[in-house]
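Tokens help. One example:
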Amino acid sequence: MNTQPLTLQDTLQSIVAHVPQMLAAIATLIVGYVVALILGANVQRLLRRAGMDARLRGWLGDEAEGETARFSTWAGKFVYYVVMLFVLIAFFQILGLTMLTAPLNRFLEQVFAYAPRLVGALLLLFVAVVTARIARAVVQRSLTAVRLDERLAVEPGEEAKPVSRGAANTVYWLVLVLFLPAILGALGLTGLMAPVQQMLDKVLDALPNVLTAVLVVVVGLFVARLVRRIIENLSTSIGVNQLSERIGLASLLGRYTLASVIGWTAYALVLLSVIAAALQVLAFEALTTPVSNMIDRMITALPAFFGAVLVLIAGYAIGRLTKGVVSSLLTGIRFDAFVQSVGIRLPEGAKTPSEQMGQLVLVVVVYYAVMEASKILGLTLVADVLRNFLSYAGNIGAGLAIFVLGLYLAQVAASAVRASGMGQANLLAGLTRAVVLIFVGAIALRQMGIADEIVVIAFGLLMGAVAVAAALAFGLGGREIAARELENWLSRLRSSDRSSSSQ
């Protein structure tokens, strides 16, 4: 074997021999780079002129405003990198670097082998997008032609909600999903295609029920709206709104009228029935069973609910009528002057005592109506609590009435003592007033049921203390008089004894 070392001349000859090859490789790289730039830019420019960015966003349903990803830019970069890949392979082959070109060639072979699948998937995607766009346009135009958005508006003149647009977009994406298994199959992604196909099978199985339920809801909305308008107009024509103004319900309802409330109630009832029917059509047992049971219970409870509402309305109407009668009656018998005579002064601008008593009567009547409504609704616990509270409130009211009467009697007794003209009349009048108030206060507290034993014991001790004080005052104050009378009695007894002994 020749092991002679290479000389400088041999090295230079080797380099000179490879110079043409290196220059060819560099020229190929430069030309290929320029060609890649030109091709990428031209593809990008052509796609932009063709409006592919806007079309692709429209196909995909992208209606977001602002800058979005540009398809033409991606396509231009893709062409640029593909051309550069071929340029690099040619560059390395010219240089004879087979160790670098071999893996690149294998990669390109796999890419070109997979290219038919990719082209097929792209064609299917294109067909899917076109079909979905056609279906969306057909659905939206059909729904717009029948004025679905306007018909589903709750109030006349209300801005229509984009129901047709939402339905059209739903159809668009549904069509794309239906093409998804075919696209995945074209790409050879069988592992991903199987679960997607199973999902689509379930969706397609449930689709007839879903469409039927949607149809039931749409028809039910039309019927509910029609029923609401009929009932509202009928209630208005028979004078329901005037009746609500007479009994005072108009102030409670605010900007709504009683006829509109009745109409909306009918609307809600029809809608509940429609929802129950739609849930039964869906046949989703896990969802429909509890919801249907809840709706059935609500519908079953409606008679009791309406009965309770009628009782409350009747109670409020009767309460307002009774309030006016009581206020007028008390004003006629000078109840306001009586309240002032017992020393009760009301703030400036406050309601008169007669009006306040009328308001109290209204509250009591409405309270009874609430208690009866609770019984009708089956809320026995609430009814019992209200009844117990009413019993306690009755005792409180009776106690207050007794105390007010006591104030009047104390005022009358004190005035009578002052009018007598005796000495210390003002002091005796105040003492009389205090005694009457203490006595009446004890009776009122006992009537209210506030610590009965304590009130009885305290009042007994007070009366006992007064009696003992009176006895002590009489005894201590009349001690000298009693001694003189006793001395006179003894003197008379002695005189009687002497006269009898002398005889």
Observations:
- Confidence is low (pLDDT under 50) at residues 63-69.
- The chain has 18 helices and no strands.
- The radius of gyration is 52 Å.
